[in-house]
Design brief:
By secondary structure, the chain is mainly α. Helices cover 68% and strands 3% of the residues. The chain has one domain.
Amino acid sequence: MMTEARNIGVIGTSARIAIGVGLLFLAFWGEGVQWHEALIGFALFPALLMLFQWARLSRTKESLSANGPMGYLLNNGIVVLFVLIPFTRDPAFLFYGSSMILAAVRREGGCEIMSLSNWLLRRNDEVG
């Protein structure tokens, strides 16, 4: 079930690209990115999100719209947790940075974190 996507303009697109590139820079800054960090950030995190979506969609086809205070708290709590744990810091920067860039390329005004799963599943779900 694809709901109408919210397109973004030049400012929104530019902001997503700038933030995405900045997050990717943070991942590569310092010692660089190890192969296992790239695997986690570019494959494992997106795969886990897709598995969550497939499991949720097996129970309901309704659009996920967790963008109230609890969705915001959950989303940002996970980001903070990933960034505070050294093992997941660079993978998180890779995942969130690439998600921001994908959202910009798709001119998607919704949830950047769900950008890949929304694109592959032809949906418009949001968290936070």
